[in-house]
Write a structure and sequence with these properties.
By secondary structure, the protein is of the alpha+beta class. Helix content is 32%, strand content 23%.
């Protein structure tokens, strides 16, 4: 995601951009003088009554024409919950005036924004339909993020987000002079949208191939095979020690063991071995991370040479490496080294001929990235983490 004409400044530029973003959000809080309070969802949004639900087995019976006119929503995560488009009898159409609306599905806690008429799959009232006079798209996105943050931990499939449970759920919102600061929400989301556009993270529509990848994963129709890491990518390379006192300030990210800042402990100007972007590092604890920029590494880091893979296949491989190496077998008393990487066995998906299915890997990871960053739903939160690893990809 880094910018600039010099590729070796990418990590630094990306970090500066994110710090700048955090600064802008902090300035917004100061500008509006907001305070933070908890509100019950019921006291913020209004549950809509007399919502029509449709048995999917009767869609043809209720059809007026073959025109794909309005969305038919179900409790699905992919495709924003839309199963298909239909033109059905008027009595089954909800939200005919196209007001901004939030749907919350009880089974999977999925939250959807819409501002069109729609049909809803019969779920015996399992989907909450929420509106309010003040609601617009930006405010809705902010509220959805605040709601999602709470309900994803509070509810599950076995503890569904029922209407009663949701109504009594409290979410944290910004206030000014004791009132919810809707103007702040608007400008907050506008700022985030501008950031997403500038960084290219606003293109989140799933392709047919990406949807197929998600469908395969959901259906469990994937074959797996175990591979040796060295056989796939050659011998791993061990970084070299560079004491803190010997580090010269510069633009090259220097990777050490640790989770903070993706393990980047400094930006250096020393003459060290520079590793290529699109590679994977494994630290002394077995924690694997994908690197999309050139970097240096210390002796507690092993570098796996995935340069020839496309970005998303490399991301998938990183997850497979992390799952195998970061299972508790490495710690301070037993460090992970490059020789351990050479012996590591990882599980990857294969096609019918037994060869690694790189197309599936790439399409799945691309789809998952889009799902994670879609719109600004995952961003519109006071304590947003703009340094999340998926944003650095």
């Amino acid at each position: 995601m880094g910018s600039g004409s010099n590729p070796e400044k990418r990590g630094l530029c990306g970090k500066i951009n994110r710090q700048s973003m955090q600064g802008k959000l902090a300035q917004l809080e100061k500008k509006y003088g907001v305070d933070w309070r908890e509100f019950r969802i019921e006291d913020v949004l209004e549950w809509q009554q007399n919502i029509s639900e449709i048995d999917p087995m009767k869609l043809d019976e209720y059809s007026v024409s073959d025109e794909k006119k309005y969305p038919f929503y179900g409790q699905a995560i992919i495709n924003n919950g839309i199963i298909e488009y239909r033109n059905l009898r008027d009595e089954f159409l909800n939200n005919k005036n196209g007001k901004p609306t939030i749907l919350i599905h009880s089974n999977n806690q999925n939250i959807v924004y819409l501002d069109t008429p729609f049909y809803l799959k019969d779920g015996h009232g399992a989907t909450s339909v929420l509106q309010a006079d003040f609601l617009n798209k930006k405010i809705a996105l902010y509220l959805m993020a605040a709601i999602k943050k709470v309900i994803i931990e509070k509810f599950s499939y076995n503890n569904k987000a029922t209407k009663i449970g949701l109504k009594n759920t409290e979410i944290e919102l910004p206030t000014k002079n004791g009132e919810i600061a809707y103007e702040f929400m608007n400008e907050f989301v506008e700022t985030l949208e501008a950031y997403l556009k500038a960084t290219g993270l606003n293109h989140v529509a799933l392709s047919a191939e990406e949807r197929s990848g998600l469908d395969k994963l959901g259906a469990g129709s994937i074959s797996w095979k175990v591979f040796n890491l060295e056989a796939l990518f050659g011998k791993a390379t061990r970084g070299r020690r560079l004491k803190s006192a010997d580090r010269v300030a510069g633009n090259l990210p220097f990777v050490t063991a640790g989770e903070a800042d993706m393990g980047i402990s400094a930006f250096i100007g020393n003459d060290v071995q520079v590793f290529s972007e699109n590679t994977v590092t494994i630290d002394m604890f077995g924690s694997a991370k994908y690197r999309n920029y050139k970097y240096g590494a210390d002796d507690h880091v092993a570098v796996v040479h995935t340069e020839k893979l496309d970005k998303f296949s490399a991301l998938f491989t990183t997850s497979a490496i992390h799952k195998s190496a970061h299972a508790g077998q490495f710690d301070y008393s037993r460090n992970f080294y490059a020789t351990d990487a050479d012996e590591l066995m990882i599980s990857l998906p294969v096609s019918a001929d037994g060869k690694i299915d790189f197309d599936f890997m790439s399409n799945l990871m691309s789809a998952m990235q889009k799902v994670v960053i879609k719109g600004v739903v995952e961003w519109a939160d006071k304590r947003i983490e703009v340094t999340k690893g998926i944003i650095e990809r």
